[in-house]
Amino acid sequence: MDKEIYIVRHGETDFNKNRIVQGSGVNSSLNEKGQSQAAALYAAYQHIDFDVVFTSELVRTHQTAQGFIDAGIPHIKDGDVDEICWGIHEGKPGDADMKQDYVKLMNEWRNENYAARIEEGESAQELAHRLSRFLEMLKLRSEKNILVLTHGRSIRCLMCLVEGREIKHMDDYEHKNTGIYKVVQKGDTLKIELFNNVDHLKGMES
What is the spatial distance between Cα 25 and Cα 121, in angstroms, rounded to a whole number? Predict the structure, then answer.
């Protein structure tokens, strides 16, 4: 069935602002700027007749989608679109050792060692598995206009899956707060029509 799927990153949190690692284990809320971004998102896209809104299980995505939820659009929480788990780094500000771990992990993934992970964290392989499951579920649903609120690393991985690319290319896809990827489904084919679009944030401080 043909459909349009809008995949959006959550609004800003203080963890984003202060460059503290979030991941799936940190259930942070939107800050004031994030709330304004969410309001701008709703103002720009409320005209679309969304049939359903999916969020992760984390509150920052619920808050970003709140305008749509308050408008009566059915809301489904799905842990398959939670952020990746960054293990022992979650809730900690970045430092030299953490950066070294991150660079090493990204190199492992670029070299197709998708089982690599931060200690106690989630691998790219595990992330891709649950996101593939989510994407296949979406493709089979009957709704024509679908809104999905998710997270930065999840978006990077999802876009590789949408385009049929190896997940080593995840970092090719940018993800600003409330940035939108619009994916159009025709039959069983998916195509990205908007890439990290933030036109709704024009006029707001960066």
Answer: 10
| CA atoms within 13 Å, Cβ hemisphere of 108 | 15
How far, in Å, CA of 26 to CA of 139, rounded?
29
Enumerate residues 6+ apart whose C-beta is below 8 A from 203: none
Inter-residue contact 191 to 183 (CB < 8 Å)? yes
Query: What single DSSP character describes residue 190?
Result: E
**What span, in angstroms and rounded, lies between the C-alpha atoms of 81 and 9?**
11
Beta bridge partners of 80: none
CA distance 82 to 127: 9
By the 8 A CB rule, do 160 and 17 touch? Answer: no
Instruction: Express each pLDDT in 35-89 by its tens digit.
Output: 999 999 999 999 999 999 999 999 999 999 999 999 999 999 999 999 999 999 9
Q: What is the pLDDT of residues 154-181, one digit of tens each?
A: 999 999 999 999 999 999 999 999 999 9
Domain 3-201 has CATH 3.40.50.1240: yes
Tell me how far apart the alpha carbons of residues 73 and 24 are, in angstroms, rounded to a whole number: 25
β-pairing verdict for 52-55 and 180-186: unpaired
Q: Which candidate, 80, 100, 98, places its Cα nearest to that of 90? A: 98
Our measurement of the distance from residue 45's CA atom to the centroid of its chain's CA atoms, rounded to an integer in Å, reads 18
Q: In what order do the strands lie in the sheet with 180-186?
A: 75-77, 52-55, 145-150, 3-9, 180-186, 189-197
